[in-house]
Amino acid sequence: MQYVKNSKISPDEWLHADTDGPLPAAGDLIVPLARWRAEKDQLLARKTRLGVRLASSESPEIIRDDLGRFDLIALEFPVFRDGRAYSYARLLREQYGFKGELRAVGNVLYDQFSFMHRCGFDAYEVQKDIDAQRFSRALSEFTVRYQPDPDGSPSAIELRHQPQRNAKIQRGRP
Amino acid sequence: MYRYDEFDHAFVQERVAQFRDQVTRRLNGELTEEEFRPLRLMNGLYLQLHAYMLRVAIPYGVLSSRQLHKLADIATKYDRGYAHFTTRQNLQYNWPRLEDMPDILDELASVEMHALQTSGNCIRNITADQYAGVAADEIEDPRICGEILRQWSSLHPEFSFLPRKFKIAITGSPRDRAAIKLHDIGIVMVRNPAGETGCEFWVGGGQGRTPVIAKCINAFVPRRDMLSYSEAILRVYNMHGRRDNIYKARIKILVNEIGIDEFRRQTDEQWALIRGGALDVPAEEIARITAYFAPPAYEKLAPNPAGFVQKRDSDPAFAAWLRSNVAAHKIPGYAIVNISLKPIGGIPGDATDVQMHVAADLAKRYSFDELRVTHEQNLTFADVRQSDLYDLWRQLGEHGLATPNIGLVSDIIACPGLDYCALANARSIPVAQRISERFADLKRQHDIGDLKIKISGCINACGHHHVGHIGILGVDKKGTEFYQITLGGSADENASIGEILGAAFSYDEVVDAVEKVVETYLKIRTGPDENFLAAVRRAGIAPFKDALYAVR
Ligand code: SF4
Which CATH number fits domain B134-292: 3.30.70.20, 3.20.20.70, 3.60.20.30, 3.30.413.10? Predict the structure, then answer.
């Protein structure tokens, strides 16, 4: 597995805590939602950074009031076809204003990178090395997007009608 | 019709390049078949019983002559010289090879076409009324909103991995020819008291094993808000739609489980967060797209010119075709022509490469270079001068394209069934062919009048049997094909789900059973003005039951 942050393969400073058993004494820690709920005080007493990991059945709405406590939120993709976390990511970024690391975990493959990126993910635990090496290539497959993105990249509609965003604009011919 | 601008062209070319790369990675083993499957599905490529099948998107069913020529050429070069028009206004090739796929997509891109999202758990090709722009009762051409939605739904970053497929249909007329109440989202263009046009949204319709008529969720969404409103619906569905059971994963199940009021509340809650933001459709964009659908340069013509009337009154075969296949146009002197792809004994929706070239040439000559595909698997020329009808009819007839049976008993919708489909219980196509042959006498068909027969080879209902006036469903009884008959379904503005008549019939019996149903109708109808559906609604299914099962 490779860790990609801001489009680059990077060393991962975070540890994942198991669902039970003793917590590591030191280090930045990502805990499952259940542990956050059960061991909140203990976790806050640590002087390390804290992240929470949500299963695809766990909406971030559940932790909305606690968002300020987390430096990282990991969203699970249990299988390719389970797309709930795309919506969760957009809610976190666009509606809840979450600014920390948004990490995709689970079944994270090359052909999902650009969808994930466009929904607001900035970190990825990538299953195959070759996928991680080609991360930037995946993001460059498309220069045109039909929807506005959370990062503010213009959509085709915006480019058509705000020519200052694209000096070379040429209208279609009705 | 809509033409690509530089952004649309670049997008489709980039998509072809992406898919070419995916095929390469599959062929060199980097991707397993399991990993490749959802990727090929997102590009309309299925693996069927005998071969791959490629489904090409025809947005809201509209084609230019040039595009149809290209589709015909692809059928010649990469398939077996024919193609199949589907109930979602798309086109399917049944025999393409995986290796050829990127080249086929390149050819499609050269005429502004693609196979994006014709399959997979994403927002599918958007369908619309085939009489868009020419129906007299139309509030607004549905293709304008259709095109705005098409673009928004293309490779949507959030909604490409939904619980299940998602289908949207739009009509601009109160008279519904697009079956909008049987779609995940159905949109009716409406006008509010202030005279502004907007979208009436229906949600949660669908067929499959649990047929449901959609419910109205919002009676007026301004056009500028249509994307944010759609996005709100999709977000609720994406987060809360069931993923534990594919038979319960469509939005209709979610809407039924939580109720339309709760679904509306959640949608409104999401909408409030995003309404008026980046998804607002600017007036300039609506105007830009509207311009592409401006009416063609109609001539000022007198209705019913003498030459036309003389031919109509002297040639009964022409008159019969006019009666069933030609509809009124909003402009005097013009007519809407429906071209039947249901010749007697033929395969519903199939067309040969030659027929496609002929249709393309005739559309260029007689209908402003444009034609439409209908969800009933026929073609429509929307803008034909009445004075040209006779010539057009004769030329269509030379190529087997003038069967006068639109809306009649042999205008059957049938899914591919066991002849192609891996999921089928039973054959559909041969049943359609046999019914069509049984009623081959066109005079008899015209006497029977409006009657929609729809056939599915299994409970997935691709042949829309639930909403057939007569619906036929293939079931499997200990390895043998049987057919269950339903009566009284309808897909129009008064949509209803058909009622099961009784025990299923064998492959050999089913055509007799259908004929008996039709004879019973002829016996009980109050007169030729009471069509089949009206008679079933009035009398119920009891008389049909008696006729069919008393004798068994
Ligand atoms: S209804 Fe069943 S048999 Fe017919 S095409 Fe659909 S899945 Fe196949």
Answer: 3.30.413.10
